[in-house]
Each structure stands twice: as structure tokens, then as C-alpha cells.
Automatic annotation (TrEMBL):
InterPro entries: ERG24_DHCR-like
Membrane topology classification: Multi-pass membrane protein
TM region(s), chain numbering: 7-26, 32-49, 70-93, 99-119, 189-207
Protein name in the entry: 7-dehydrocholesterol reductase
Species per Swiss-Prot/TrEMBL record: Timema podura (Walking stick)
EC number: 1.3.1.21
PANTHER family: 7-DEHYDROCHOLESTEROL REDUCTASE (PTHR21257:SF38), DELTA(14)-STEROL REDUCTASE (PTHR21257)
Amino acid sequence: MDVKQLTNCRVGLMAWQLLIIAFYIAGVERHGFNIAALVNLLLQSMYLAKFFWWEYGYFNTLDIILDRAGYYICWGCLVWVPCLYTFSSYYLVAHPPQISNLAAVGAALLGVATTLLNYRVDYEKQVFRSAPDGKCVLWGKPARYIVANLVTSPGKSRKLLVSGFWGVARHLNYTFELVATLAWCLPGWGLGLWPFLYFYFLVALLVHRTFRDEEKCSAQYGDSWELYCKEVPYRLVPYVF
Ligand SMILES: NC(=O)C1=CN([C@@H]2O[C@H](COP(=O)(O)OP(=O)(O)OC[C@H]3O[C@@H](n4cnc5c(N)ncnc54)[C@H](OP(=O)(O)O)[C@@H]3O)[C@@H](O)[C@H]2O)C=CC1
Ligand SMILES: CC(C)CCC[C@@H](C)[C@H]1CC[C@H]2C3=CC=C4C[C@@H](O)CC[C@]4(C)[C@H]3CC[C@]12C
């Protein structure tokens, strides 16, 4: 049995989905139907559906490859995810959204677009890594890549994609994820800072994760990683960071 698949995917993320449905129903029972609360629920449900669609790709990430099934992951997924990740919906139960229907539709469009883009970035890497010899087409052109020698296993190498989104910035999946999260928190606009609690946490987590992931890549690929960073100089937002 895969302990991390059980804690992260089966318990943590399914609790996230069930709790936000319960919070939405509690909000409707208290204050009646509100389109902004529905947008908050539907955007997160879309994000979670996308996660389960892509779940196989998750098995190649830091959480599964690098982290052990210790306190950080177990407590994080069993307690932190159900409490903090659902917080924007929890807050709306006692404080009904104040934004207009038009603003709610705007948030919905932003959320759908950035969730799809987040998926697309992860998908491009998955397609590239599973193509024989890295031969695949991205954005209408054959994918370009750097052959990165593995310092940790001399004689072996892997390919680093420099086409498509992976040629624009080194962690564009995080950038789109942050905007998607902001979009589902927007129904709490005008209710103070609390509805955005998960968004602040995610900014800190993902900025820290860019450094953690790159430390791992630098140790793994050495000079080849430096070369990739020269080709793709920005982490999250081109020309900014
Ligand atoms: N909501 C949340 O709490 C969080 C959500 N996420 C989301 O989870 C998803 C996965 O993110 P994450 O786990 O951080 O990992 P990533 O999908 O960003 O993968 C990072 C790994 O990909 C490989 N890689 C890096 N650059 C390239 C390249 N140019 N070409 C090919 N391979 C490359 C490296 O591994 P190697 O070369 O060794 O294979 C690197 O360690 C994302 O959508 C992210 O937004 C992530 C963290 C938290
Ligand atoms: C205790 C805390 C300060 C920190 C706990 C962190 C963990 C609970 C989270 C760290 C990384 C998180 C995730 C990574 C990637 C994911 C893919 C995404 O599409 C869905 C969410 C998640 C599984 C996410 C879940 C929580 C973490 C493991």
C-alpha cells in the first residue's frame, strides 16, 4: 500500500472536496442561494477533479519522490489540508459573499482559465517525459530540450524541456496555481483578510518550494542545471522573479 497516496490523495484531498460541499450547503441553509459562493465551490471542485485526472503525474513530484511519509506529510495532509485549504469556503458560511454577480462570473472565468493552464504546464512535462527520446510537438514545433547529465548517477542523463511553458519560466505551473487560488478566494472580497488565508499560505509554500525543488535539481544535474537556468532565467513570472 502506498501510504502517501492514502494520506495525500485519498484522505486529504477527498476531505477537502467533501468539506467544501458541506460548507456550501450550510451557507445556502443560512443565507439562501448566492452565485459567488457557488463559484467558490465549483472552482475548487474543478481543481480537485483536475488533480485526480492527473494523479499519476503527482507520483513524480517532490512529495512522493523526495519527502518521506513522516510528520510533515502525514499531519499536513490529514489535518492542515482539511483545515486550511478549505478555509475560504468555511469563512463564507458565517459571512455571505458581498461581490456582484458580474464579479463572481469574472472570478469564475479567471479560475477556469488558470486551472486549465496549470494542468497544461504539468501535462506538457508529462507528454515530453513519456515521449521516446523526448520527440514530441509543443506549441506546433518539435520540443527543444537540454540533455542533463545526472551527477548522482554518472553515465546517466535526463532531458530538461526548454519549449512550451517550460521555456517561459521554470515553475509556471505554480504561477497559474496561485492565480487559480486567488480566483476562488475572490468571492470573499470585501470581507477582510481572512478569506484569503489559504492564498497567503500558498504564496509562501510555492515560493519556498521553487528554492527547495531547484536545490534538488542543482544537486542532481550540476552544470546542466546551470545551463537550463541560463536558457530559462525566471522562476515564476518572466522579467520579475
Ligand atoms: N496546492 C498546493 O499545496 C500545491 C500544489 N502544487 C501543484 O502540484 C503540481 C506539481 O508541482 P511539484 O510537485 O512542485 O513539481 P513540478 O511539477 O514543478 O516538478 C518539478 C520537477 O520537474 C522536473 N523538471 C524541472 N524542470 C524541468 C524541465 N524543464 N523539463 C523536464 N522536467 C523538469 C524536475 O524533476 P526531475 O528532473 O528529477 O524529474 C523537478 O524536480 C503543480 O501543478 C503545482 O502547482 C505543488 C505544490 C503545492
Ligand atoms: C505543515 C505545513 C506547514 C505544511 C504542510 C504541507 C503539505 C500538507 C503540503 C506540501 C505540498 C502540498 C501539495 C503538493 C502538491 C499537490 C498537488 C495539487 O494539485 C493538489 C494538492 C497537493 C497534493 C498538495 C497537498 C498538500 C501538500 C502535501
